[in-house]
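Quick entry, no commentary yet.
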Amino acid sequence: MACLASSNAHGVGGDSDGASVLVRLAWGRQVSALTWGVGCAVAIVCLALVIARRQSVETHAAQAERASRPAALRDAELVYMERLFRISTPVGLVARLDRAYRMPSGLLVLVEFKTRWSNQPFLSDVIQLSAQRMTVMGQTGQSVASYGYVMVKAPTRRALPIAHFVKLMTGEQVVALVRRREEILAGRGVLPRKSSSLKTCDSCAFRADCDSGDR
């Protein structure tokens, strides 16, 4: 009789221990699930913050880009930015343009940015834009306007770029300019003309090849 009671007691104790184990397992699973849920929630919140910040930065950049445009291009689409173009015919040209905008008509308009104190476009700016126009048309087959804009910004933090409308050279004029340069560098009897700006002449890489008395 005593043995039976003892056996029953052990049986009850065993059931109690098993129930405790099950409770602990269930609790552990609940804690793990809760921890996983909290971790997922934190990850989602962090991801949402990163996305929101990125969108804010992109929105600010887009607003800054739009504010820097010439007024005539407010409704245009920015299609190229810091893009390299090249052609091999009728002459070899490589040009890196600052920006190109597509007007509602489909015509591309080129924009060149310059940082300097002199608030005016130079002939070198027109040549740059003209060469860019020729390479873009030659590489893509798209129509590019025969005019462009030079955005001149003073080298100060708060200065805003000022737009200057410029008429570009024709393709024939660009080709003639390139071939004239080649003739001068090859020494084939074509003489360079002196620059109208002494600063341009002084900074020229070929200054040493020129007659200093006839610059």
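second:
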Amino acid sequence: MVGTSETRLVLLRGNSASGKSAVAAGIRERFGRGLALVSQDNLRRIVLRERDLPGGANIGLIDTVARYSLDAGYHVVLEGILYADHYGRMLQQLIADHRGHTHCYYLDVPFAETLIRHATKPIADEVDESQLREWYRPLDLLPGSVESVIDADSVLAATVVRIMNDTGLDRLPARED
């Protein structure tokens, strides 16, 4: 078992440029201290500089960082593309092991919209349309209907407020340390 009965685990998944990182940053900004942001991109691309492959080392690292943070009493927002076939087993076990409240979301953005959003990102010059098309997986949901689907019509601020309300993070105090 991991975390406490009071910790929150928020899972944000979706395709590239669906808004996961912006939503996670918005939640953290609204909540304050005491919320760990566990980003697949940071751990896979920056820390390990690893490609996204089945069985990659980043899967265990993501799991370890999320579990450590929950055990330390932090609420966790875990965000990334996190393909169901690569990360599903780890995510399902993390969800099952978490003692507290777990909320899972999938940001469903059509491919055409991801292209528009991608053009505004710092890596827009490094990653082209063909690469985005290769990565894109429509509704790559985890088994068991554990994810709430948020569509592209939900603007950033509304999505952050919804998740803060759903999870109860809007009613919990931030750490003072």
